[in-house]
């Protein structure tokens, strides 16, 4: 234990595992990957994983590509958990908890998610800026259809299967607040208004993406970033995000 | 065997080899490389290799940079193989076969390919979107000439050598369908109409690229992605994709 | 020692340590990372770390991704240190000291910084070129507000905490000079005029970024590069860098 | 030797060395790096190093990120070397010599270079396409000034020192030919007309860059690619490549 620089009176055992799939190992390896994608530049962004009633959270202000398991906070989730006032089972010494914590908890408690990722991807920021130019009332959701990658998203909570090519992906946009924790109520509001969305854009800030598993949160976050990049490039080329393409019906030879 | 987490009653031996060139090892290493290129974001895209009468296929829905040999499906190809209804020699537990399978098989059976790669590269998608703006009848093929990288493509099935600098590269575009398997008949139709093409673009979706060897499929896929990126940038700069440059005839000193 | 190719009469012990956080190890690993980010292409840019009264400096003209601890210069800083005429405790054989040295020393002596990074990032250069098109008098500072990543910057020397979402980040721009050392007086002038800035842009050249710790210099440099990239993309989309967004005041349920 | 898969009757000893700086080791490691930079996509581009009278050359048609020392050709350079008809000291079995060979040899024999790099970088191609839009007579050279990175280039053959910030970097452009070898006479012509240039652009194809050492060829190639990228982005922003900025003369305090 000594060589892991952890004192024993802090539940350090919660973040020590040889299993690479353990949340305390997975969060650092995911964050390092996100850094290379430009999602968590300059300590921005974050990631949290829920396993049973334990929530593992990346700390604030750490260089994301250098994070270690011993940097991870652990929180116990209960029916009484207050999203704002909460106590940690484990707190790394010398670090600060992530300001994203109540937002991560909202995804876990309101949506049954097991993983939530927050990125500052500049594609996400640019999409919110492009929407802003449409003026008030027309800037509250990113909508795109008829792009294959849309199939990378689930239909929504308690619904089976994934979106289809002809479905519209709709991601709500909330306004940024001075303090990240203050986003929580607006995030929850957006979750209520868009019950099937797996993500919420934050104007001039970034995006929160969640999923029922780590796998789904991560691949939905990748698919969304792909779509944001595509949307910005479409805008630069003057191509609209929505189209009215009719489904192509294949004529099977056996039906002819 | 035990540490590879494979049960013996599933022909697992088909995907166990210490040779890095074995298809079950090559597909994961190729897919990891493709992930870093942004071709298979969010489990999109895929890859298949044919060796003799065995077809190795990446599964559906797996994070492409994390794929393992034990994730690979194996199919036996015969003259009776039905592209739609087929049985697997080996199926990994807990995974689903790729929806791209009948499209991969079309490249193997109709074109004698040994490897087929499917990417969701956003350059490919943007090229199909730019073509779409030309209107019906003018949007069914990507055409470019007088770019050196065109030499990276073979002249076509049963033809010797590669395209030249003054040849036109022509890649057909098919419309996307709600279900990926339904693309098969349109892909085959495009193969018949453009017998020399080594690739087919799918509108708002991506591209299928194949080759007589893994090497050729991979390098043709890279060359094509390079050309798609260049074409998008040319469009942004107002430079047309086709030119009428006359061949420069060098005057050899010995001929003067 | 022999295998490190260092002669003992040159204070080589100053750059030999097994601690990865030692400046002589940290500078090469940071520079290798910066190379992958495109910040120090073609031997451009540089990095220096101050620890107590010792200053460690990357040499001139070395491929930044290949730098070794034995390539590092060491300088002793004293109250008498002349920023232009200085003597080295250690000079690697066959290398030249960085022309950035007096600029790094200015950050250490005038701002109490512990690390200074100089990049040639083309986003930084493009920002100075865009500002230049505004004409004389309007091109001397990069200003941006209402982007979350701005929170990545400290409020300034001797001030507590970081900038907020509604604060404006202001980075002065100085004109480039024929010889990099001649930038020093203009850099110092800008430091005096903008006492809270942690960075100075150099027209058509790049940026100098510093911080009270290596961590802060590195993450502020990342945040700034993120903002420069975003600013260029905003310009291409016709979106202004400054906005007049009013703070969103959350209505806490307990206050209702 | 056996495990390197080399037969002894082919001077294989010429490409076997444990020294990472040996040309047969350096070319593969450089090419792998160039592949990640997008310079040698799809087997395009190449690299050659001269050491004394031996010339080491990357083969044609090999995936550049996978190249091995055993893939390298070796040629003996003599005063009688015919750039077109030449014999190899070592030829790898199953590979073809690079079509770039006579162009590499031109850099070695006409310019005293020790290393020559050929890339298909799409920034280089875009620069030649942008120049083409200026029309005949105005499209034969890329010219840029007042960008710090220009200092990364030597002043020219037999001249001391590097270009300054206020110097103009001028890179000639030659037209592409159907066969790469036919470029040779146009490359030589451009070398004669622009005796100080360390690079020649090839329209719609790429760039050849050389240097007196491997270090200089590589860093000049990086600096040039940086400038090509910057030039394309400047064009997109409507900023001209040439400016008439007057040198800023610093007023030293001691002179006041």
Automatic annotation (TrEMBL), chains A, B, C, D:
It is found in: Cytoplasm. Pfam families: Aldolase_II (PF00596). Its main location: cytoplasm. GO terms for molecular function: methylthioribulose 1-phosphate dehydratase activity; zinc ion binding. Zn(2+) binds at residues 118, 120, 205. The gene is MDE1. This is Methylthioribulose-1-phosphate dehydratase. It catalyses: 5-(methylsulfanyl)-D-ribulose 1-phosphate = 5-methylsulfanyl-2,3-dioxopentyl phosphate + H2O.
